[in-house]
Write a structure and sequence with these properties.
Helix content: 55-70%
Strand content: under 5%
Shape: rod-shaped
Strand order of the largest sheet: 1-2
Order of helices and strands: HHHHEEHHH
Radius of gyration: 38 Å
Largest sheet: 2 strands, antiparallel
Number of helices: 7
Structural class: mainly alpha
Number of strands: 2
Oligomer: single chain
Length: 208
């Protein structure tokens, strides 16, 4: 079902100028017919039906004809044989365009909010991994970086950069020229896993 706006903008100055030569009965009939057009999207091109909609059918025939003559000038016949006030239809189009713009803006705003929420959820997932690693004895620093007698270990940020660079071109992590990661040997896969664990350990604040 097409959604219709429950109300339309009423431009007071334009209305006063456009009805300045109309009688009270003509103005009343005009307003009622505008309302019927807004609700039903058109008016029948039939004087009897228009008189009934305008609540003037009980008047004398000449009086009804005079009112309709003046009021009909405000409505134009359309291709479908119905009558419409063109200004009112322009207002309808403006409303539809405004609602469409607001709907698009709402969808974009919702997309941004959900994107931020997903990002926040992803970021919040890191600490849980870090806690797990801190509680897991197997996540202690690798022997290669904590040998006895090594008085000056690399700063964590240096080792992180080195590990990230190594992982980026690791043969078990990347389809290198003529090489498929599925073909990696167990040793390469184990080395990849160790480097990933070490990188996660350092990023979670582990000792260098």
């Amino acid at each position: 079902m097409k959604r219709r706006g429950p109300a339309f903008q009423f431009y007071a100055q334009d209305f006063l100028v456009g009805t300045v030569m109309m009688s009270t009965a003509e103005v009343g009939a005009f307003v009622r017919l505008l309302c019927h057009q807004w609700v039903n999207e058109s008016l029948p091109d039939d004087d009897t039906a228009l008189a009934r909609l305008a609540l003037i059918e009980g008047e004398s025939g000449e009086h009804v004809a005079a009112i309709l003559r003046r009021v009909r000038a405000k409505f134009q016949p359309d291709k479908d044989g119905q009558l419409r006030n063109r200004r009112l239809e322009a207002i309808r189009l403006e409303q539809a365009s405004y609602r469409a713009r607001k709907a698009r803006a709402g969808k974009l705003g919702a997309g941004r909010r959900w994107g931020k929420k997903r990002g926040a959820n992803s970021a919040m997932a890191v600490p849980s991994v870090c806690h797990k690693q801190k509680d897991d004895p197997s996540s202690s620093p690798s022997p290669s970086s904590s040998k006895k007698g090594d008085a000056s270990p690399k700063p964590a940020f240096v080792e992180i950069k080195e590990l990230e660079a190594a992982l980026a071109i690791h043969p078990a992590n990347w389809e290198w020229i003529g090489y498929k990661s599925d073909d990696a040997t167990p040793e390469l896969k184990a080395d990849l896993a160790a480097k990933r664990k070490r990188l996660a350990h350092l990023k979670c604040g582990g000792r260098p």
